[in-house]
């Protein structure tokens, strides 16, 4: 997921470089050219991206595993009977998503959504205001041009690419999403303070500290919007309904988008009081984001330190005697009886 989410930073880098390249023709072209590309991409997605795997003939996420030939034939027959009787074919149009309240009640959705709120507040403040900050700050005894500042600011997203990949790798190894995200947000606080304090010494120092800050700021942002959303969208409380993934992702990412809009807005007011006030806001936001995951971090650490409970002998004996297979066989017989008319039931049972 960390590698896949690198496309976000690649898009930020491409957009900044493209806007800086056409800046000589006027500020308006910095909006027109990227906007035209976005509109073209939207048309391509609308025309060629299928909504669900079933729409192009592939099995969905909730598809049952491969069965033996006899059972496969039985289920195919049942599917034909159901489709004939109802006159309705299951597909993307028959999907019904989970409710908003049900999705919010999944453990971890609200804490991660609020964490992403502050994480995006910090990340998007850097994204939108870093070029202006670089052009207004003396680096190595001189000021950089607006175009050079735009190109230089892309290195923050370069660090974000490595941060997303690193956060995903650590999270997969430890199987601890909240701990990884909280650790990265905590490490982002000193990295931002160091960048503010020592980034003006030289261009090389500015680049190194900027990439380190981007690594820790964008790491949890990438993790929450990908792996965490996927985990929560397929939570056991949803009973295997993977259609909730879109709802959970919308709640988490939508809450984060509010922070992405609020951060740059507040920066516009705070920058008039000095850049120190802006960095104080960013560090406070990162601290709150880490604290919001504290309860989940404690739960993950407790789960890791607890000893696994062995399976009882009675449960093993029940599973070994095929109790679950009995319910499967009974369901298979009932499927036959429902598929055929009642006058053929005796003939059907005689062949079982």
Automatic annotation (TrEMBL):
Positions of the Major facilitator superfamily (MFS) profile domain: 1-301
Keyword Protein transport carried by entry: no
Gene Ontology molecular function, alphabetical: transmembrane transporter activity
GO biological-process terms attached to the record: phosphate ion homeostasis
Keyword hit for Membrane: yes
UniProt protein name: Major facilitator superfamily
Transmembrane annotation, as ranges: 27-49, 109-130, 150-170, 207-232, 278-298
Listed GO CC annotations: membrane
Membrane topology: Multi-pass membrane protein
Keywords tagged on the record: Membrane, Transmembrane, Transmembrane helix
Localization (cell): Membrane
């Amino acid at each position: 997921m960390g590698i896949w989410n690198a496309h976000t930073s690649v898009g930020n880098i491409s957009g900044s470089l493209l806007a800086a390249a056409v800046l000589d023709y006027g500020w308006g072209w910095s909006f027109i050219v990227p906007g035209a590309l976005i509109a073209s991409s939207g048309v391509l997605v609308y025309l060629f991206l299928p909504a669900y795997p079933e729409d192009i003939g592939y099995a969905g996420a909730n598809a049952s595993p491969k069965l033996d030939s006899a059972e496969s034939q039985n289920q195919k027959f049942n599917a034909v009977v159901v489709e004939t009787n109802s006159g309705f074919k299951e597909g993307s149009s028959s999907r019904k998503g989970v409710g908003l309240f049900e999705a919010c009640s999944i453990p971890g959705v609200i804490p991660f959504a609020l964490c992403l709120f502050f994480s995006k507040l910090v990340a998007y403040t850097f994204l939108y205001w870093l070029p202006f900050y670089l052009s207004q700050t003396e680096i190595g005894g001189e000021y950089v041009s607006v175009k050079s500042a735009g190109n230089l600011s892309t290195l923050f997203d370069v660090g974000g690419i490595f941060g997303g990949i690193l956060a995903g790798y650590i999270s997969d190894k430890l199987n601890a999403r909240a701990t990884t995200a909280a650790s990265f947000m905590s490490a982002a606080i000193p990295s931002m303070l160091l960048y503010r304090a020592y980034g003006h010494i030289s261009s090389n120092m500015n680049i190194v500290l900027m990439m380190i800050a981007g690594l820790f700021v964008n790491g949890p942002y990438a993790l929450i919007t990908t792996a965490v959303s996927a985990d929560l969208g397929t939570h056991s409380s949803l009973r295997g309904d993977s259609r909730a993934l879109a709802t959970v992702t919308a709640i988490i990412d939508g809450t984060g988008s509010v922070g992405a809009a609020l951060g740059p807005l507040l920066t516009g007011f705070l920058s008039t009081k000095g850049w120190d006030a802006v960095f104080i806001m960013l560090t406070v936001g990162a601290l709150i984001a880490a604290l919001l995951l504290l309860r989940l971090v404690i739960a993950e650490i407790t789960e890791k330190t607890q000893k696994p409970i062995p399976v009882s002998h009675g449960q093993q004996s029940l599973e070994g005697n095929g109790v679950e297979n009995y319910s499967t066989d009974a369901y298979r017989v009932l499927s036959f009886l429902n598929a055929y008319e009642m006058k053929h039931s005796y003939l059907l049972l005689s062949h079982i």
